[in-house]
Amino acid sequence: MAMNIKRLIEIGSYRGYRHRRNLPVRGQRTHTNARTRKGPRKGTIAQKKKAATKT
Fold first, then answer.
1. Distances from the Cα of 53 to the Cαs of 1, 43, 44, 50, in angstroms?
2. Beta carbons of 30 and 24 less than 8 angstroms apart
3. pLDDT of 1-53, one tens digit each?
4. Helical H segments across the chain, by residue range
5. Is the dihedral of CA 45, 48, 54, 55 positive or negative?
6. Are 16 and 8 in contact (CB under 8 A)?
7. Which of 16, 22, 30, 51 could disulfide-link to 9, CB 3.0 to 4.6 Å?
């Protein structure tokens, strides 16, 4: 299995690109979902501004 993924990455296919970027490979939407594959959310600008006004 790992060799198949490595092969996809090496030949530069779309699926290999998705594996390399840690994004969903099988056509799922990523605009609002895919948190498992993307990982924890990055801090948003609004949260940073809110934290800055408290100090």
1. 50, 16, 15, 5
2. yes
3. 789 999 999 999 999 999 999 899 998 988 888 888 888 888 777 666 777 77
4. 2-11, 14-20, 35-38, 45-54
5. negative
6. yes
7. 16
pTM of the model: 0.61
Label residue 54 by pLDDT band (50, 70, 90): low
∠34-38-39 over CA atoms, to 5°? Answer: 115
Which residue in this structure is represented by tokens 């800055």? 52
Residue 44, both tokens? 């948003």
Compute the distance between CA of residue 51 and CA of residue 12 in angstroms, rounded to an integer.
42
Categorise residue 54: left if φ over 0, alpha if ψ from -120 to 50, beta otherwise: alpha
